[in-house]
Amino acid sequence: MRPMLALFLFGLALPRNCAGVRSLTSDQSDACEKLAAQLGEKVSSIGQAGYNTSLESYWSNQEEKLQPACIVAPTSDEDVAQVIKIIAPHGRVGDIQFAVRGGGHTPFEGSANIDKGVTIDLSNLDDVNVSNDRETTTVGMGAKWGDIYQRLDEMGLAVAGGRVSSVGVGGLTLGGGLSFFSPRKGFVCDNVIDFEVVLASGRIIHANMRSHRALWVALRGGSNNFGVVTAMKLRTFEQGQIAGGYTYYDFSTTPQQLAAFSEFSSNPGYDEYASLIQTFSYAQSLNTSVVGNGLVYTKPQLDSPAFENFTSIPSLFSTLRITSLKSVTDELDDSSPPHF
């Protein structure tokens, strides 16, 4: 398995841009009226509280500034099927486009929101259910990884999921997904046993190894538009506490950091329990540029030889500790605040 690592360069945040109210076509208004007639208060329009709450909860400014004709917040897979049945006829003739939003963390414009179309906000589909045999966890596509880890940490379990607690399960998994467990478990999408999917016809199916296998394979990475996934079943495994945290260094150590990064990623004897996220950023509290290494070892071991080239470099401070998976992903979440 290839090493699990990442190298990030952080830039400056852009100012927030609030778009003005935009006029709608008769087809757009008609589609939203039909949705409201069927789903009532689950449908909100410009200026209404539910509409504003949904937009304000996107991670990026690029997504928040878009203004859909209306936002639908289904509470079941049947609701999603009803939405698709109503808007599909409009979509076939190009009158109405729609977007599907899970956690709302994907940053680029149009990834989970749409101007003048219909946004299907799956935030209410956030159930987390562990099977009786503790081998699988079924999650709604509105859940976030922090919700899942909170539940599984208490049970001594884990899934191969996202590294930031506020990231939604849907976008990450359907796009492939990296995890702290990826060196041993593969991409996040490799651990999906079953997808619950609403097709363009409004039919609800399950795609897995035995049923609709081609669709199951196609949904595992690539962010493909083959249906609206409303839930998925993830392979689950026993997991205790881990070692993790961020260590920050003076920017002058950059040559040493890059050398350590290169050796870590090319080591033929790579330790599959070790993961690294390396960042180059500006620390406002220190008024200086710093190098940050997010070191995670998925065993409760602080002195892993895998990180010796990093820990031997004198640091400014470190949060490396024995802790829970939820705690580590919360720390990474704090380092990437919303509205960027």
Describe what you observe in this structure.
This protein has 340 residues and is α+β, with helices and mostly antiparallel strands. It has eleven helices and 17 strands. It has helices spanning 26-39, 49-56, 61-64, 77-92, 145-153, 169-174, 182-185, 213-219, 254-266, 308-311, 325-334, and strands at 4-9, 43-45, 70-72, 98-101, 118-121, 128-130, 136-140, 157-158, 192-198, 204-208, 228-235, 237-238, 242-250, 274-283, 288-297, 317-318, 321-323. Strands 1, 13, 14, 15, 16 and 17 form a six-stranded mixed sheet that branches. Strands 6-7-11-9-10 form a five-stranded antiparallel sheet. The chain has a four-stranded mixed sheet with strand order 2-3-5-4, with helices on both faces. A hairpin with a 4-residue loop joins β14 (274-283) and β15 (288-297). α1 runs antiparallel to α4 (77-92) and α5 (145-153) packs antiparallel against α11. It is globular, with a radius of gyration of 22 Å. Mean pLDDT is 90; it is low at 4-21.
